[in-house]
């Protein structure tokens, strides 16, 4: 599959690429997601900026030769007076001038610059319509950035600053990944000359709610899991699949009905991918016990049927593990699975299809760059995806979740999780 390169300006600016329309692909949205690190206080930056601004003015007023520039200073003073009468278009505070295309205060200017330069992503704990004014602007960074963009502040106007001294050149983003594997992050950063792909994969990696290592916390040292351990790990895997999707910046921009339709269709495939990624031990006896099939002597046929399904599950997990898939590849594979047009009733099929194609392009380029000695790797990874559907979602429910939710369909719980933004108070979820 040949990739058609975006304009030169997009290669220099990964955030601009997210809005670029690839030939044959629709433009990729770049809505916010949860940040992996807590940004610095905007108020601190605002206050610091005001102090620096005042100090510079004082220094200029006492500098020899300032008298000679009195005419220019007078004009500048009049301009500042006019700016003080103009409100910040974002929060309504006093504007300090025109920044990135609009009149804004120092606080909103600094917030916007930091968000764009560091490619930070946020989430809203409300309904994504929080009030943004002088007194509430720091309460929701998601809605603040959304309003900055809505009011016309331009990402492309933010010049790329130098890399902080604590960060090596070429690292993903401008902050360390708190979630995901560092090795995969470093590998994704190695897509030299393909910064938009690096940025795209980094968004998928940062969307992971838990690092892979945390899945292993509920596993026993001897690799034998009891019923409670199985249910705990299964709850983690399912919840992390939903959280990961919600944290992808362009998933929340889809219609809620489309979000629900996609996850209700593919949750079991994402579950299998997560199970493989965390090397979930699959032992027949505890799985049958978890499904409640060991207690009834009349359930012999059901036991045989479930053992066959467990075997299929085990095969899919083992085949993925045999490929030694890294975290970046898992994230791309999950994105390919998630953005499927097979779901019924989708309102924006073309956009969802473009997201799937972009995920495939990112995975292909990543495999070609990071595994040059494995020319068939990309094809092998993609060929694993259709077989994921051979694992019955009903069997996964019976094996792993009947003790947690009884007869409530998982699809119903996923819908409620998306609409409420919570993981409910399931057993085992408090330890997450």
From TrEMBL:
Residues 53-64 have a biased composition (Polar residues). Residues 65-79 have a biased composition (Low complexity). GO terms for biological process: cardioblast cell fate determination; epithelial cell proliferation involved in Malpighian tubule morphogenesis; fat body development; glial cell development; neuron-neuron synaptic transmission; phototaxis; R1/R6 cell fate commitment; R3/R4 cell fate commitment. GO terms for molecular function: DNA-binding transcription factor activity; protein heterodimerization activity; protein homodimerization activity; sequence-specific DNA binding; zinc ion binding. GO terms for cellular component: nucleus; synapse. Gene3D superfamilies: Erythroid Transcription Factor GATA-1, subunit A, Retinoid X Receptor. It is found in: Nucleus. This is Steroid receptor seven-up, isoforms B/C. It comes from Frankliniella occidentalis. The gene is LOC113211638.
């Amino acid at each position: 599959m040949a990739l058609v390169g975006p304009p030169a300006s997009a290669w220099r600016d990964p955030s601009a690429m997210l809005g670029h329309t690839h030939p044959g692909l629709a433009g990729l949205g770049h809505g916010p997601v949860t940040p992996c690190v807590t940004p610095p206080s905007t108020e601190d930056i605002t206050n610091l900026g005001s102090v620096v601004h005042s100090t510079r003015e004082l220094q200029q007023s006492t500098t020899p030769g300032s008298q000679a520039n009195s005419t220019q200073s007078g004009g500048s003073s009049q301009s500042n007076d006019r700016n003080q009468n103009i409100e910040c278009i974002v929060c309504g505070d006093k504007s300090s001038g025109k920044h990135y295309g609009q009149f804004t205060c120092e606080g909103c200017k600094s917030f916007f610059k930091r968000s764009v330069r560091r490619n930070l992503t946020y989430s809203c704990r409300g309904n994504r319509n929080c009030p943004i004014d002088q007194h509430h602007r720091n309460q929701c960074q998601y809605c603040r950035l959304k309003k900055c963009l809505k009011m016309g502040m331009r990402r492309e106007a933010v010049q790329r600053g130098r890399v902080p001294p604590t960060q090596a050149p070429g690292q993903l983003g401008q902050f360390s990944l708190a979630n995901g594997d560092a090795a995969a992050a470093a590998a994704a950063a190695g897509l030299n000359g393909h910064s938009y792909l690096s940025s795209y994969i980094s968004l998928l990696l940062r969307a992971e709610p838990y690092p892979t290592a945390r899945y292993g916390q509920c596993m026993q040292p001897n690799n034998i899991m009891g019923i409670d351990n199985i249910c705990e790990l299964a709850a983690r895997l399912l919840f992390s699949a939903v959280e990961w999707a919600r944290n992808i910046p362009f998933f929340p921009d889809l219609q809620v009905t489309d979000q629900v339709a996609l996850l209700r269709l593919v949750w079991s495939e994402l579950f299998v991918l997560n199970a493989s990624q965390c090397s979930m031990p699959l032992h027949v006896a505890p799985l049958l016990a978890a499904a409640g099939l060991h207690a009834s002597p009349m359930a012999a046929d059901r036991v045989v049927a479930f053992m066959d399904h467990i075997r299929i599950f085990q095969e899919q997990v083992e085949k993925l593990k045999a490929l030694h898939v890294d975290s970046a590849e898992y994230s791309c594979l999950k994105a390919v699975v998630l953005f499927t047009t097979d779901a019924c009733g989708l309102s924006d099929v073309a956009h969802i299809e473009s997201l799937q194609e972009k995920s495939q392009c990112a995975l292909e380029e990543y495999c070609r760059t990071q595994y040059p000695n494995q020319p068939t790797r990309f094809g092998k990874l993609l060929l694993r995806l259709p077989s994921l559907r051979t694992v019955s979602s009903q069997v996964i429910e019976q094996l792993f979740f009947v003790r947690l939710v009884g007869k409530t369909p998982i699809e119903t719980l996923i819908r409620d999780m998306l609409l409420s933004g919570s993981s409910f108070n399931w057993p085992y979820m408090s330890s997450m």
